[in-house]
User: Fold this.
Amino acid sequence: MKEGTHKLMTLDFWLICISNFLLYAGVWTLLPVLSAEGYLFGLDRFNMMVTMLLFVVAMIGIGPLHAYLGDVYRRNHVLMASTIGLGLCAFGSTMVTQAWQLWTLDTVAGALFGIATTAGITVAIDITKSQRRGAGNRMYAFSGALGLLVGFLLSKLYLVVDFQQIVYGALILWAGCLVAESCVYVPFRAPEGVGLLNLDRFFLPKAWLPAINVCALAIGIGMTTSLLPPYTWICTVALLALAIGVVPLTRMFVKLSHHCQRGTANTTMQLAMMTGLIVGMVVGEHVENVLINSLVTILVSLLAFSLITLPYFRKKRVRK
Assistant:
């Protein structure tokens, strides 16, 4: 049947997109202010670098467990549990007194966000008609990227409110996320006996080159988060461009996948983007001439995309 004959924007799909928007908005309301808060807390640049990188390592490191968790437990329950866990980690961050406590919370939060990212993508696919899953993947990815942009803008409230109020704002966003998640009906699927460690639903091997390219591009954009006024608008424009670009990028990753790998393709793109943005935030705190370095990184990434990644995609894509 033609794709256009199947309804995509059902109530359940709207709800899962709203939950994804709020999930990313909450995370990115907090992430950009962690460095500033850490410095006020007494941590030096090295300790803050460790804090941010632990989030990334945990977000990626939990990946091989995704398929197992989604097989043993209901996917929407995994998504809801990880959202609750993120809220608890954020609340706990207002009470830390030592660096190791912040590191522990950030590591757990990174793992939970990694789980939530993949679980949400899986749920979105489960509730979408097979003929519309390509469009569903793109719409769902865009909702997260838009939430990322809104979260970054909300993080700027840190200039006029304290860290605790920023945390409460993120908790409100995640509370709305949890409500939306709880209202989504997900059909029961019998366990398939997936092994404990599995790259399924986590990393698409054929997309390794686009993933590196997206990560490099996101590093350049992430570096712009360190820009001070009057140049902060540059980061907003860059994040908006990334949010718009997520739609064709998701389409590219999905076209490198087979029918049953579309969720894995989406996860690969999302994690590559998040990794790059966070690494870029760290790099931006440690280099001089942030604007020049970020622009060079972005331009080189776009050039590599045109000269290397696109030809690779045309050669390796599975579907037209």
Summary: Residues 3-316 form a domain with the Growth Hormone; Chain: A; fold (CATH 1.20.1250.20). The chain has one domain: 3-316.
